[in-house]
Amino acid sequence: MNTATHLPDHSSAATDTRALRRTQFGWYMNDWANAAFSATVLTVFLGPYLTTLAKNAADAGGDVHPLGLSVRAGSFFPYTVSFSVLLSVAVMLVIGTIADRTGRHKELMCGFAYVGAVATMGMFFLGGSRYLLGAGLLVIANIAYAVSVALSYAFLPGLAAPDERDAVSSKGWAYGYAGGGLLLIANLALFEGHDALGLSSGTAVRICLASAGLWWALFTLVPLTRLPSRAGVAPARTEPARSDSASTASDGEPAAGSLRELARTLRGMRRYPLTLLFLGAFLCYNDGIQTVVSQASLYGSEQLGMGQTSLVIAVLLVQIVAIGGALLLGRIARRYGAKRTVLGSLVGWVVTLALGYVMPAHQPVWFYALACMIGLVLGGSQALSRSLFSHLIPAGREAEYFSVYKISDRGTSWMGPLVFGLAYQVTGSYRSAIISLLVFFVIGFAVLVKVPVRRAIEAVGNPVPERL
Predict the structure, then answer these.
(1) Structure pTM?
(2) Is residue 235 pLDDT above 50, yes or no?
(3) What are phi and psi for residue 71, nearest 5 degrees?
(4) So what's the pLDDT on residue 240?
């Protein structure tokens, strides 16, 4: 008797597994690609260089006058970043609704990635006093980066079953730190050796900036060829019918329909108060994280007396240790659940700030240890927050909800710097400023503890992972 029809189709299962892993790799490589912009451009090279260009164009009082406004040259870069963040908030929300309505998540994600990459490569032409060109390219690139990253998050629910999502998110974060760190090491080597190569320091910086755009464009080819057009849902569930708000929008008017969808999305989120509670917790503690990362170099140079070389080494240590930190916390989450692991990471942030507060000045070894501690908790806390939020999204609304999530990640990051600045203004001490950030982690911890994650997942109709 022929029993072949009664045997499981192992070849089909193996093919499906290979296809899923191929898709996951494409998603990991998107983090690998875009992290170059964050590490090389935003974190290390563009701020000092654009400030130099602004100072070259400044008047006798040290001011530049973009659009007729008087701005201190030293404040031009942070003001430009803030302006780009405000614009990215609106663009992310609109593009997220367009992506969910049209199903063209990949095309929009990669399209914005290439816009950002081209703008970044254009930074090679900065020089002299072209600070306005630099500002324009930064605004375009930063908006494109924000939109592309928000759309990439929307793919996460379709890349793994609920119980595997923490590991996939953590691995993606690790790829990002690895890619960004690898290019940063190469660029720092180029910059430190520019004299031996016959390059001026300005030319070396412009090459480093352009290389980030080239890296971003080159490796975006991988997600472009491996990801599906539409960000799907997890293998363990089927997507319910779209709401009437999506089906009744006019297909012939994507922009107008998406604005209507945006309004409905923001109103509809009120039906999921537990999802909003999680967003509130994330908004608070992530604001503290972003401020620690952005102000660590200032704290190191002004309070601890660290030189430029020590600061650069510390940035590299954060990038490298964050790879292992993301993977380690992903493994811990598999045993204890994402929520408990994120709560543990917030305790780690509190300890890190406390040690930073008492750290002796002019001791690079201790500063490097602080950088390692930041890297250890940085990747994991953000990767697991991303995967945890992916469970709290109604199926079919991934891009819209992750656009709101990215607003919490980027658009509200003014609170931490404001508290940091006010604390320094009142006390005159950066130690007081750094310890003031404890409030964000304490409040975020307290709010996250109160989020009943299982009920929140059930409320949006998603399957509940075994470990929470």
Answers:
(1) 0.80
(2) no
(3) -135, 135
(4) 41
